[in-house]
Amino acid sequence: MNLIILSETEQNLKNAKAILNNLFPTIQVCLICADLSKDPNILAKTVLNQIGGLDISAIVVNAGYGLFESASNPSASTLHMFHSNIVGHQHLINALFPILAKRRPHFDGRKWRRGCVIFTSSVTGCFVSPYNAVYSATKAYLDHFGECLSLEASCLKIDVVSIRPGSVKTKFHDRIPRFFVMDLINLFQQSPDAVASRVLKSVGMFVKVDCGVFAVLVELMNKLVDRNLYIAIAQNIYPFIPDIKKLFEENGK
After folding, report:
1. Residue 230 to residues 90, 163, 165, 198, 234: CA-CA distances in angstroms?
2. Residue 166 and residue 95: Cα distance in Å, rounded?
3. What pLDDT digit, counting tens, does each position of 72-107 carry?
4. Average pLDDT, the chain
5. Which residues of 75-100 are buried (b: 16+ CB within 10 A; e: fewer)?
6. How far apart are CA 243 and CA 236, in angstroms?
7. Is 176 helix (H, G, I), strand (E, B) or coil?
8. What is the largest CA-CA distance in the chain?
């Protein structure tokens, strides 16, 4: 088996490879150090050159980062995040999906398959919150793109899974501000292993997957409450949450 990992941090790649080699000595690990927010054409060419003729049976779109800031006072990091979470990923899919589509199908005991594509979206893609607009939108894009791609992919015997996790116990939350809303969401945190397990169990069975208590509650709310009513309620509630109110006041000056 070949495992290809892409990250912009070389040390993280080396650490991951060391752990994987220790756990699975027979796996061949290929490391690609690249920044998803840079020139997407160069990114795609770099990846294609480094993987060479390696067999590709699964594409996992999991990279990216989040940013918490006001739309009225954006930084350059906002566009950096947009390019990282959407543009870079789209170019990689454009480069790698055709390779997967040409792969020889195999029979797994239930049906013929060529492989799968997995998108890590987020519950924020369908849960509105202030100061999180661009990040939430990038996750909504991946989620909907996965749904649409699945229609074509199924004809090619390729499974697509778009998973929307709630809060996950990773270092991601250490890099964003602590607010009451986030503290509330984090009460329902789940482990990364739980998310990975849900993904693997969903391949070949479901396209859209809500993972974690909070994600399931949000999906249920979206089904029961009209979207405009939901947004109107949120617009009237958020200004009264103390830490959010303080940000509104600071950015309204």
Report:
1. 31, 23, 20, 28, 6
2. 30
3. 888 888 999 999 999 999 999 999 999 999 999 988
4. 88
5. eeebebbbbbbbbbbbbbbebbbebb
6. 15
7. coil
8. 63
